[in-house]
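Comment thread on ticket #2218

A.B. wrote:
> Attaching the input chain for the structure job we discussed in standup.
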Amino acid sequence: MNVPSISPAASPMRRLTTWPMNTPSISTPASADTRALMKSTAMRAANTACSRLIPVRATISLIRASMLPSTQGARQSPRVCKLCTSDLKRIRVGAIMCPRTADPGLRWPLLRAGAALLRPFTTRSSPLDEPLHLVPRPQRIERRSGHFSLSPATLICLPAAAGDDDLFAARQLQQEILEATGLKAAIERQWRPHRAQDTIVLLRAGRDAALYPPREFHWEPPERPLPDQAYRLSIGPQGAVVAADSASGLYYGVQTLRQIVRLHGRQLPRLDIADAPALAERGVLLDVCRGKVPTLATLKELAEKLSFFKINQLQLHNEHAYLFPRHPDIGAGCGRLTNEEMLELDQHCRRHHVELVPNLQSFGHMRHILSLPQYQHLAETELCWSLAPTVPEAYRLLDDLYADLLPAFSSLQINVNCDETWDLGQGRSEQRMAEVGPGRLYLEHILRVRDLVSGYGRRMQMWGDIVLN
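C.D. wrote:
> Ran it. Output below, let me know if you need it in another format.
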């Protein structure tokens, strides 16, 4: 039997799932070898399925009718019957169907196999035991019995002091509810709430807690100010409250609520969530220099998806995929992002609480630039892989590139990379390498690059492979 391994990320399943049996159609009378084969197949399913399956909400049609002996002595055409028919009666064991026409000696092994398959589906006794598939998993979740039902009257409420960041998060939630349920929840900014029922409140805990009584709105104000990016989410029987003390925290609380709406639709489970990130910076680096350079629309969509999962930093690994006005030959014909496009992407990322960090190769990995005739004299060797740290003009080139790139970003960081300098000390800097050694030679370049980016008010990031080795 081919039993597929189902990833936890795929649950809950909402479609019919079948496990085909690699056994030919059988006519009566069935031989002893055939019965032994089917018995071993069924028992193998019983022995292996439980360890490979996760609980899913699906109806499983396990065995095709044509693969079992028929009492009429004729070969049956392959089919899967969803309901009992007059010519093929079945014994139902939960969601597993076993033909009543099967050899009596095979029924018990088949039923045992079905029971084994069903065991993961039937062990939970309460909806409170069902996991919430949230990414990333919140620090603390407390489930409660009951639900909050979204309705056409559902209101998303903002305090009067709420700013544009909070309003943007509210509109994201409004759109999520519309797409998941077909309901358009109204958004209101209020001096004081006029109702608690059927209301989703987005508030700043320290500033607005007095306006929303805990007993009436079914939430518990934090005892102390919440750290940056932290939030509380409470879903009660009549509504929900997202509370934070920072714009980023409120935004992330709304992303969690969006995920719950996407999973559960109109019936939101009652719960209390307290969450804060384990790492302040959670980033993704996308290499835009290999293959097609992504369009601005693609990069915007990427930023939105990252923020939905609370990733708050994006870098575009760059050597030549940017139009440098002072050096227009770099990247010519390869597709490049312009200063205006980066400004627009940076603004879009900030709206979604994603920091767009500039990234530029500044030592190794510079073959595309250094292979151009006008820059070959800056390369360490004929491989044109690394800059030569002993050539002063190399730093004038880097300064020009930083001057063109950095103004398009609001981030105060820059990743200068400086990794995989395999040819360092093998060409133009060979003599300096002999004088000070590879470690000192590498450090001298890093310190000069740091001085350059500091002059633009930026803090330097770099890879540590060379330093560590």
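A.B. wrote:
> Thanks. Noting for the ticket: The mean pLDDT is 81.
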